[in-house]
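Students often ask why we bother encoding 3D structure as a string. The short answer is that it lets us treat folding as translation between two languages. Here is a chain of 325 residues written in the first language.
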Amino acid sequence: FVHVYGLAYISGPVLQVSQDIVINLLGRASVPLLSAVSGYLAVLTLTGTPLLRIADKKFKSLVIPMAVWNVLAILLGIAVAVTTGAHISFYEEIQNKSIVEILIGNIFAINYEGAQNSHNFLRDVFVCYILFPLIHRLTRINGMATIGIVATIIYTVGTEPIIYRAQILLFFTFGVVAASNNIQFKLIVKFWKITLPFFLVIGIAQISPNLMEVLEDKVFDYDLFKRIIVSHMMLCVCYFIIARMPRYLLNALNDITFIAFLSHNIFFALVWAPFLNLIEGGWTEIYFVYFFSAPVLLWFAAYAEKLLASRSPIFIQRLLFGRKY
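And here it is in the second language, the structure alphabet:
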């Protein structure tokens, strides 16, 4: 939902629901949960693994697919520009740049300027995995104080250009600390009653500018506080749903989640085109249909991609998705 197209074309209550509630409230959980779960799983799967092995494994499973899908996005942008004259973001990102700049920035996102902005996160998550042995060692020595150590580094020294989005490192550390101390998800979600009142206040603030101003003034790093609260509530909701989800459906979603992430920008761009014609024709209400249907349709598209991938050579599967199906 955070990366759907066309918010600039919409105004009124539809924009308020889609932007203020879904994107600026619920959507604030996306990066923290991606980072925290990555850190949690790193402890379970990579503890004791040599650094070079971690780097090799994660480069193949994260960086290579990110780069390939950035190339596909750039090619789509060029194709649209050549055939229609329209300049979508994928094309605008590479204008007036050299081949080296495109390779370093837009394809591999070394400077956090990937052709698809959302894929920049993978660059930072990859660096977190490189730092995992150090973070894990600090956690074994300092326990939960490791979170404070990392936070202090973030607020004093900073993390750029090693990690451009410092919150990814912080939440990755949350996950490492939780897993290292055997704090299971079923224990984490038990505190939902404590989080709920804060979540409700934050939700009200999204539609109340005055309350938002007060919170931003009184709460230290309100954006981080909001992400922590919203992420915990979304984790509780996910845990509740997953606990009641049939195993076969959970396994199916597990297989296509990364596919959906890698391909979502290109999918939204392709689906957006016919809706844009309708909206520019005066039927602005149809955007509400697009906004809430496109992310759902994405999962069906990801499933179709998985079926196609499973029939492709293994090296193609690894290039596109970092694994074989």
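Translate back mentally: The mean pLDDT is 89. Keep this in mind for the problem set.
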